[in-house]
User: What shape does this take?
Amino acid sequence: MPEGMLIVLSGPSGAGKGTLCSQLLKRRPELVLSVSVTTRPPRPGEIDGVSYYFTDEARFKKMIDAGEFLEWAKVYNNYYGTPKKFVEEQLKQGKDVILEIDIQGARQVKKNCPNAVFIFILPPDIEELKKRIIKRGSENKESFDLRVKSAEEELKAMYDYDYAVVNDVVEEAVKKLESIILAERCRVKRNKELLQLVRKEGCQS
Amino acid sequence: MPEGMLIVLSGPSGAGKGTLCSQLLKRRPELVLSVSVTTRPPRPGEIDGVSYYFTDEARFKKMIDAGEFLEWAKVYNNYYGTPKKFVEEQLKQGKDVILEIDIQGARQVKKNCPNAVFIFILPPDIEELKKRIIKRGSENKESFDLRVKSAEEELKAMYDYDYAVVNDVVEEAVKKLESIILAERCRVKRNKELLQLVRKEGCQS
Assistant: This one.
């Protein structure tokens, strides 16, 4: 069975990648979402094991030491990480796996899994980004300023990505994500079986 | 205005790329088809200026000498070529242009326009390919054998393409082509304006 594809959705905090990700999963139920582990406290409505696996710092650090993360990052004094085992198992079963992670994490995935698809989610503009962060409302002033500055820095990371999707109209942005995934499945380099078929067929007659 | 994208649909003769191309153009009216010039006689139903610009060998050779082709090839004793001027004008106007050309021609485009998108159309299998060529019915035995042998050779060219689309179910294949085009429009490297915006925004605040 051909291996699945690892799809990294990343971008500045507050670009709306969470919304896009959940809409994408609704429209493409064959995709598997990797649930991250975090030490950040749950926000209202977040469910353990669905939104994140919530844990404490001591346990998180043990997981780091045991090499259990595909990537991990410390963002705004909280830890976030992707459990390696789950992702590898799903890929082996031929499933396409979505990672919705921050930019630090995406950089590590790029190093470890250069064949993954890297998609950068952009807010319509910086002003819009600030509004979204304000709306989220769970931050104090200091934490807010830190996030905005970091977001601006992070925009520059786009250069290292394969695709950029501006999250202006959610419906449109989700359609673009879908197209990117369908297109990547057609990449010659991802179709080893097709290549073998061609080699075989090409030598007949 | 950002420049349009050059999209090359190619593949072995008889893979059904003509059908896919016309279906794609129906679903994506913003795409512009480049009409080729050929010395091959019209088949029943083909219209000059729509299917091809039909011309004679002397005139075609003059066009070669004048450097009027983006690519040209001699296939089965007939010449085929893409007029350069039309394609360049459309791209400058920001239009995405489709070239439906044979593999020799695609090789030349790859040299001259490395940023084009290269899509290889595959027949479901070699047997199917043979059937399609037989159905076409305008060939004698010699010409038929030449085409089949050449098709098998040409399958190997797939390695140099970005995408491979198997033409088993037309509807599905067209959807894949659409997705590839939508996805390529999101490529970071194709979004210079976005990159400039990021650079500018990234330095503010």
Summary: Chain B touches chain A at residues 119-120, 122, 125-126, 148-149, 152-153, 155-156, 158-159, 161-166, 175-176, 178-180, 182-184, 186-188, 191, 194-195, 198-199, 201-202, 204-205 (CB under 8 Å). The beta strands of chain B are 6-10, 32-33, 37-38, 53-54, 69-75, 78-83, 97-100, 117-122, 163-166. The CA atoms of residues 11 and 175 of chain B lie 18 Å apart. The longest strand of chain B covers residues 69-75.
